[in-house]
Predict the structure.
Amino acid sequence: MSQIASLGIKRLEAVHYLVRDLEPNRRLLVDTLDFREVGGDSPQVVERSKQRTAVFVAGNVQLRLTAPAASDSAAGRWLKKHPDGVGTLVFEVKDAQKAFALLDSRGGTPLDEIETVEGEGGTLRQFTIATPFGDSLFRFVERQGYRPLYPGFQAASQVAPDGNRFGFSHIDHITSNFKTMAPALLWMKHVLGFTRFWDIRFHTNDVAPDRQTGSGLKSVVYKDPHSDVKFANNEPWRPFFEQSQINLFIEDLQGDGIQHAAIAVPDLVSTVRELRKNGAPFMPTPGTYYDALPGRLEQITVGPIDEPIDTLRELQILVDGSAPHRYMLQIFMQELAGIHGEAAAGPFFFELIQRKGDQGFGGGNFRALFESIERAQLAQGRI
């Protein structure tokens, strides 16, 4: 069977996040995570759209945060249905016309025709499609010398120097949660042309079958074979389907949608050490995880690793791998609702990841992550 034609995706250019209040998110991104605020909507765009966007950059990670100035704005309507969350993922493509034609022919659902913007050093072509990711959209952008980040963007008069002192590099993957993920997987395969890359099933009930509570998931990763764009997709897994943290996320978001973005860094130990000094809040990991870690690394054939176990325990960094001395390090920040102390801030969070030869998704770490979230949900009386 011949491979499906490529959409020509070059990269995930930006994550467009919709918020009720820019200020607490600005403080988190700039003061805690060392993103640079590089600009936002021009006054003319703000007046016309009745909403305001601010753009934050760290390495090749670009976050566009939009807050409504009026309830009848696009952001305002979205936020009537959901807590803060991802409204749009923006992808740069080689040829917008080709991508549009392929998506349209495969049953994709464009929301508009291709928009062409001239000037500013070149041409930009873009269009947007609906997705199975709840109310999140995908926008495809072709740049031919066009310099602004998007039409109507106005650069800040003063911008901090390039670089992120914590080493943020790029978005390694996007993770989404679904009540049932089969439709989304079929859409990624047959509409986007992505290929199946990795999968796992996990349940806290696996090692304690007599327990009366638990949380489980099925996870399948799809990848664009022509770029480094990857999507991890989760659904709840019985027993205790309604208690699954995947299902609870869907309840919190009030629909399927994007759970987290994983940011790649070159040295996670140094990054987490400095972030903790800067007050960054992470999900806790039980000490028993590190008690068992040396034996687990031998069991999964990774063997000795470069980082001392005591250092990982101190910083609460997770480890997983699949072959001798090929592994990954990862850690998860708290949900934004917890960071901001406000349920309306939403269940989205950031992961930080360093890959040391392993391209998996931390299947062996699901237990630690689930137990951490489960303890928080028990404390809240949710399970």
Remarks:
- Residues 366-379 form the longest helix (14 residues).
- The two ends are 47 Å apart (CA to CA).
